[in-house]
Amino acid sequence: QVQLVESGGGLVQAGDSLRLACAASGRAFSNYAVGWFRQAPGNEREFVAAIIWSGTSTYYVDSVKGRFTISRDNAKNTVYLQINSLKTEDTAVYYCAAGRDYPNTLQDKYDYWGQGTQVTVSS
User: Fold this and answer.
1) What are the 10-residue block averages of pLDDT along the chain, 123 residues in total?
2) Are 102 and 53 in contact (CB under 8 A)?
3) β pairing state of 68-73 and 92-99
């Protein structure tokens, strides 16, 4: 069992940066790939980025490439999502999830989910 807790969200202005964190507890978190998803108001939850268990490979949806960076520190059981040059369309609840497969953009392939952290970007 793995428990995930996201943090780092907040109200920011367009152009700012944020670093979201996904802290894990439970067994063998370092064996799992981790994905970040987001859900904007009125929209379906969508895949954003994923990182392999070792941290040596990452995968991004095209729309965030160059602005989002996913990383992990297995010694701290934490995965990060650095978001630069924030845009109003980045406003969403951001979720992290852990699963065995990588890269995996499908929500139902992830085994564990956090509760989400709200990111609101004002213009």
Assistant:
1) 96 98 90 97 97 97 97 96 97 97 95 98 97
2) yes
3) unpaired
